[in-house]
Amino acid sequence: METRNGAGLAALADEVSHCRRCPRLVAWREQVAGERRAAFADQEYWGRPLPGFGDPSARVLVLGLAPAAHGANRTGRMFTGDRSGDFLFAALSRAGFANQPVSTGRDDGLLLTDMWITAAVRCAPPANRPTPGERDACLPFSARELQLLANVRVILCLGAFAWDAGLRLIAACANGRPPRSPRPRFGHAAELDGEPYLLIGCYHPSQQNTFTGRLTEPMIDSVLRRARELAGGPL
């Protein structure tokens, strides 16, 4: 089963990385990759949609917003190469989900244990603001990904946009069952119990949140401990 699911995830990753469904996102990600930021002028940008990555046996799935223009859109791996990722991977290392506290590129030796990282939207959006239509265009990819991750029990949503996408993702994987009504509200450490998945919310580790103290290290550490507890405890 693990080998078959691994092959399925690899095939899905290849399909995701060649997607051109959303003209606005295609134009922006490729413009950024062509113009580049001065600090990264000597680097070749990924400039394509981002597949998820991590442990195929994961019980916890982290659902982010979208790749950063000069972060994951440059490095080719979710949350890698920007300040949000710096904060997140340090927390994952403290929690035992990652083997190192930093992530700079796809070949930096980072390994995740019991965790898979993906995003509601797979391309870098202008101003970090994808549209609902762009979110929904990525939903089939996320549903297939979640179905291949057979051990996932907990979906950790980073921010309100990811929370809403998580609700839609669960509904898409629930054999046609409609989303809950009224829609459960996002909040830091908010929880939504259900079968087969539980949702837990966390403020997004954006610079705006971490620099202002809206999201602190103790806050994200507590949410990660809770996610592990909800998933069934240590492996």
Description:
There is one protein chain. This protein has 235 residues and is of the alpha/beta class. The chain has a single domain (2-231), classed as Uracil-DNA glycosylase-like domain (Uracil-DNA Glycosylase, subunit E, 3-Layer(aba) Sandwich), CATH 3.40.470. Helices cover 41% and strands 10% of the residues. It contains eight helices and six strands. It has a six-stranded mixed sheet with strand order 1-3-2-4-6-5, sandwiched between helices. The mean pLDDT is 93.
For this structure, what is the CATH homologous superfamily? Uracil-DNA glycosylase-like domain
Radius of gyration: 17 Å
Number of helices: 8
- With strands numbered from the N-terminus, the spatial order across the biggest sheet is 1-3-2-4-6-5
- Sheet with the most strands? 6 strands, mixed
Predict the CATH topology.
Answer: Uracil-DNA Glycosylase, subunit E
CATH architecture title:
3-Layer(aba) Sandwich
What is the percent of helical residues? 40-55%
Strand-and-helix sequence, N→C?
A: HHEEHHEHEHEEHH
| SSE-based structural type | alpha/beta
Q: What is the CATH C level class, in words?
A: Alpha Beta
Distance between the termini: 19 Å
Beta fraction: 5-15%
| Spatial shape | globular
> Which blocks of ≥5 consecutive residues have pLDDT under 50?
none
Number of strands: 6
Return the domain count. Answer: 1
The average pLDDT is 93
